[in-house]
Structures are given as C-alpha cells and as structure tokens.
Design goal:
- This protein has eleven helices and seven strands.
- With 353 residues, it is an alpha+beta fold.
- It has two domains: 9-153, no CATH class; 192-350, Histidine kinase-like ATPase, C-terminal domain (Heat Shock Protein 90, 2-Layer Sandwich).
- The mean pLDDT is 84.
- The strands form two sheets. Strands 2-4-5-7-6 form a five-stranded mixed beta sheet. Strands 1-3 form a two-stranded antiparallel sheet.
- It is rod-shaped.
C-alpha cells in the first residue's frame, strides 16, 4: 500500500517543506559542533534531511502493522526505538557516503567527512528522536483516518436506516389508501355504476402517477398538489357536492420540494374523518405559504365532535410526522388541533427548491 504522503504530490511537497527547519538544525549542529564552514554544513545538512525524511516514512508501515491497541505501550515503544536506532545508523552511513562524494568534488568540501564523523553520537541521538517523532505523527494520522472512516460508515448506516424507514412508511400509506378507494368503488357499484366506473379510471390514473413520483426522494409542491387534486377528484365521485375544496396557494411555493404523497394521507383523513360524518358535508381548505425560507402547508376541515373515534385514525398523521423527521430532521414539524367543530393540520419545513 502506498504511503498517503507519497500518494499525493501536494502532501509530499508540504512534508518536505516541514523538514526545512530540521535541515537548518542539522547545519547548526555541524557548524558549531565540528567547526565545519557554513557552506559545508548547509551542503551536507540538506541531503541528510532529505534522505532521512524518506527513511522516516517507513514508520507508517510499522504503525499499520502494530496499532496502539494491539499491545502494551512498552512493547510498542521498544519496537519503535529499535527501529529508530537501526534507521539512524543507516542514515549516518548514507550521510558518510554523501560527505565522501561531496568531499571528492573539490577542495571547497575538504574535511567534511571528518567533521561528520566527529558528530556521530549527537547525530545518532537526533536521528532516533526524529524517527520516534515521525512514528508518533504516523499514529496520529492513522487514528484520524480511522475516525473519519468510522464517521463515514456511521453516516452511511444512518442514511440506509432512514431510507428503510421511509420505504416502510410509504408501504403503510399506499395500501391504506388503496383499500379505502376499492371499498368506495365497491359501494358505488350498486348505487352508481357510472360513478364507480369513473372512480376506477381516476384511481388508475392516480396510482400510475403516484408510482412515477414515489421513486423520487422529493418532488415540487406544485406536482404534489396536482396529485392531491387527482385524489380529490376520486373522492368527489363518492361525495358529490358534499365535498368542497378551497385552494389558497402562494405563487412562490410551487418550487419548494417535499417528500412525495406527503399531503395525501392528511387530506384523506379530512375526508374520511371529517366530511364523511357530516350530513351536509363541508369545505376543506388547503393553504400553502412561504415565509423566511420556510414552507407552511395548512389543511383545515370541519368535523363532527361527536363522531365515532375509529381505531387507527391517527396512523396517517403519525406517518407524516415520521416522514418529515426522516426528510428534514428537527427543521420540520407537524402540528394538529381540533376545536369548535373544526380540525386543522399545519406542516412546517424548509423551502428547498
């Protein structure tokens, strides 16, 4: 496996740049310790630092083979100290060869090899410390990479869990609506065959369009309202003039996106638990406004306070709340209220075009 620093030119340049102060430190040691002229000290320190920069990269491979959790601290320190000693000896041997080559290049570099040999003990200690420091940095890099991988996996698992939850919620909504629609068609077959036939055609169109948009994560509000009108056309066949709808939709809301078929179960509840229990029917009001970058959708319907409470009547609203949480988290909310013979639901979510 390629070292992450060697895999990218930008990282390698930054790494080598970080060794410039170390090269200056080596030149200082050679000039002050051995008495070499500054020209010779710098000429020797630069290749020494460059060579050891690559030698120290070997600590990354050892750190991968011996993670901190694989053994006690003393064992890891002993292994890395031994590796540091061997690397420092190899480095000094290569440094002697570099000094010999430079010295043979001309009289200006005379005495360089002897000056290097006089500082071997100090340079050996410096080499060990640099290698251990490089190994510590390698462990830090590995820990950071492991943390990023863990965060990415946790995020992927969270996304998969939310997708699975969303699919489960959709699976609960569709059969519920389909059952109610088929039950209505069955009831109309005897009393209004033409109405039953028209309702079946409208239901087929609605289901086809619902399947088309159901594969998408979000759709514009304008498209959601078009599906809602199709649904209400189906219900209008059953209720006739008892079902009246008033639309109050802001022109700047149609591009706001939301999960598909989010509003359908709320309007279905308004019809099933509101209009259906009133002899004269009533009016469902659907409003959509945009304020401060947020979309507000409100559905109001009349209801009979003494109507029978059907078991499971709150499934649609619960599913809407959960789908909102899955799509927008804490940035969205669903509020409902019943008073004075009326029921209302208001959804609030970010307006994301």
């Amino acid at each position: 496996m390629v070292h992450p620093i060697l895999a990218a030119r930008g990282r390698l340049n930054l790494y080598l740049l970080a060794w410039n102060p170390i090269a200056l430190l080596l030149a200082l040691v050679l000039a002050l310790g051995s008495g070499l002229p500054w020209v010779q000290s710098i000429a020797l320190a630069i290749p020494l630092a460059l060579v050891y920069a690559f030698v120290c990269l070997s600590g990354w491979y050892m750190s991968r083979q011996m993670p901190r959790s694989s053994g006690d601290l003393f064992r890891l320190l002993g292994v890395h100290t031994a590796a540091a000693g061997l690397s420092s000896i190899l480095w000094l041997a290569l440094g002697r060869g570099i000094a010999h080559v430079l010295e043979s290049a001309g009289p200006v570099f005379a005495g360089m090899e002897a000056g290097l040999l006089s500082q071997w003990p100090l340079l050996f200690v410096v080499g060990v410390l640099l290698y251990l420091l490089a190994s510590a940095v390698q462990y830090t890099i590995l820990a950071t990479d492991a943390s990023r991988v863990a965060e990415r996996r946790a995020l992927e698992l969270q996304v998969h869990a939310r997708e699975a939850e969303l699919r489960a919620l959709r699976a609960q909504i569709d059969p519920h609506f389909l059952f109610n629609s088929l039950h209505s068609i069955s009831a109309l077959t005897a009393s209004d065959p033409q109405g039953a036939r028209r309702m079946a055609v409208l239901l087929g169109d609605f289901l086809r369009d619902s399947l088309r948009v159901g594969r998408r994560e979000r759709i514009p509000l304008g498209e959601e309202l078009r599906l809602l009108r199709q649904f209400l056309d189906i219900e209008h066949v059953r209720f006739g003039e008892r079902l009246r709808v008033r639309w109050d939709i802001g022109e700047d809301t149609s591009a706001c996106e939301l999960p598909p078929l989010l509003l359908q179960p709320l309007v279905e509840n308004a019809v099933t638990h509101g209009i259906a229990h009133l002899l004269d029917g009533g009016e469902i009001v659907i409003r959509a406004t945009k304020r401060d970058g947020r979309l507000y959708v409100r559905i109001e319907n009349p209801c009979d306070p003494e109507r029978p409470q059907r078991r499971g009547a709150g499934v649609g609203l619960d599913n809407v709340r959960r789908r909102l949480d899955t799509a927008f988290g804490s940035e969205a909310a669903a509020r409902s209220a019943e008073q004075a013979g009326g029921f209302s639901v208001e959804l609030v979510m970010p307006c994301v075009p």
